[in-house]
Write a structure and sequence with these properties.
The protein is mainly beta. Helix content is 14%, strand content 43%. The strands form 4 sheets. Strands 2, 8, 10, 11, 12, 14, 15 and 16 form an 8-stranded mixed sheet that branches.
């Protein structure tokens, strides 16, 4: 019983193969292009959000990740890199943890599309505690006053400024400076207004006070004491 069935199955197999190919071709012609699913690789932005209060990022992950997207051709043609974002939620992050997994569920895609791969599968992020400190403000004075005059004193107001930033970026000996003020050729006391410049880019002002008043006291040089001359008789 099995042999006759096998003979019928293999009989005229070239013709049957051609029929199968023709049927597949007809199916491809009848099924619209836009309904056929395909895959597409994209490079999209990676964003971090919900950093816990009291912590901040000091070592950031890559700005982008690579993904593989599967969807119908019509939908796939409409999806570009600017339409998708990978969002990494850090609400449970901590200082000791430095590796964070990336999952396809982090990416919101249109209905009918699916993210089947994301690379890399994890990223490194370093967090530190936010601390506050008061930094001394030092004036930056350039140039020399007019001939016969000298700088007797320089006063800065405020003398210190409150800042905050990552714990490792604030040191006891750090100081803020002012933008340079030029006293070249001056022959009288002068007051300047200058921006306060923080010593590290990771530091931030706590208050709205971001400039300083610099009072430069310029006075005449003291004339050398004259000695009485003796008349020789």
């Amino acid at each position: 019983m099995r042999r006759p069935f096998a003979r019928r199955l293999t009989r005229e197999w070239p013709l049957k193969l051609v029929s199968l190919v023709l049927a597949l071709g007809v199916w491809l012609l009848l099924v619209p292009y836009e309904k056929v699913s395909s895959e597409k690789s994209l490079t999209i932005p990676l964003e971090t959000r919900n950093v816990p209060a009291g912590l901040e990022i000091v070592e950031r992950p890559p700005a982008t990740v690579d993904i593989t997207l599967r969807a119908a051709n019509r939908l796939l043609d409409e999806i570009g890199p600017s339409a998708l974002v990978a969002r990494l939620d850090l609400d449970r992050a901590s200082v000791p943890q430095q590796e964070y997994p990336l999952r396809t569920s982090m990416i919101a895609v249109p209905p009918g599309a699916e993210v089947i791969k994301i690379s890399p599968s994890k990223v490194t992020i370093k967090l530190e505690r936010t601390v506050a400190a008061a930094l001394e403000v030092r004036a930056t004075v350039q140039g020399k006053p007019a001939k016969g005059f000298h700088v007797e004193d320089v006063e800065v107001e405020p003398s210190s400024v409150a800042v905050q930033g990552p714990e490792s970026r604030i040191r006891a000996k750090l100081a803020a400076t002012t933008a340079p003020v030029d006293i070249s050729g001056l022959a009288q006391p002068t007051v300047f207004e200058a921006d306060i410049i923080l010593p590290r880019p990771e530091l931030r002002f706590v208050s709205l006070q971001t400039s300083a008043r610099i009072a430069v006291r310029i006075v005449p040089d003291k004339a050398p004491a004259r000695t009485a001359s003796r008349r020789v008789s």
